[in-house]
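Notes, p. 3: input format for complexes.
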Amino acid sequence: MELIDYKDFEGVKIVQQKSFVDERGSFLKAFQKKDFLPDYHIEQINFVESVEKHTLRGLHFQYGDHAESKLFRAVKGEIIALFVDLRKASGTFLKGDTFHLKDRNHAILLPRGFATGYLTLESNCEVLYLSDNMYVPGAEGGVRWNDPIINLELPVTNPVISDKDIKWDNLSREFPGIFK
Ligand SMILES: Cc1cn([C@H]2C[C@H](O)[C@@H](COP(=O)(O)OP(=O)(O)O[C@H]3O[C@H](C)C(=O)[C@H](O)[C@H]3O)O2)c(=O)[nH]c1=O
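Output follows (180 residues plus dTDP-4-keto-6-deoxyglucose):
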C-alpha cells in the first residue's frame, strides 16, 4: 500500500493498493491502522449508493472543531473526487482540484479543512468513505460545484444534484476559512 502526496495540497494523499486476488475473487484491506494511517481516528464509516450517472454530491464541510478528514473510495464504479482547500493559513487556500478514483484499489485522503464531494461517472456507483468526526448538521457548510472562484474542471454541465447542494452561495475572496 502506498500513500502518495497529492501536488501542493498539504495533507492530501492518494492511496494506492493491490487487492489479494485468487480463484474465489478478491480481498482488499480497506483500512488498517498500523501500516496505513496510524493516527487516523475513524468516527464514521459511510456507504453511499448513487443511481444516476453524473450524480454530484457536495461539496460539503463542517466548521471549526467539527471539521472532518475523509477517506473516499469508489467501491463500485468510477467517480471524480472534488475538493477545495478552505484552510485560511494554507498555501492552497481557495484552490480546488479533482481526482479520478477509477477502481477500489485507489482512495483519496482529505484532511480537515477541505470541502469535499464527488461526481459519479456511471450509474449505480457505490462509495465507502471514512470520517474522523461526528456529523453535526448545524455546523455544515457548502461550496457550489461550479463556483467560479474554484473553477473545477468537470465533464458535466447539468449533474444530478440535491436541492441542498443547488442552494450553496458562491464563495467570495473574503471568505475567512472554516477555522476561527
Ligand atoms: C453526511 C451525513 C449525512 N447524514 C444524513 C443527512 C441526510 O438526511 C442524509 C444525506 O445527507 P447528504 O445529503 O448531506 O449526503 P451527501 O450529499 O451524500 O453528502 C455527503 O457526501 C459528500 C461527498 C460529503 O462530502 C459529505 O461527507 C456528506 O455530506 O444523510 C447523516 O445522518 N450522517 C452523515 O454523516
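Residues 2-18+28-166 form a domain with the Jelly Rolls fold (CATH 2.60.120.10).
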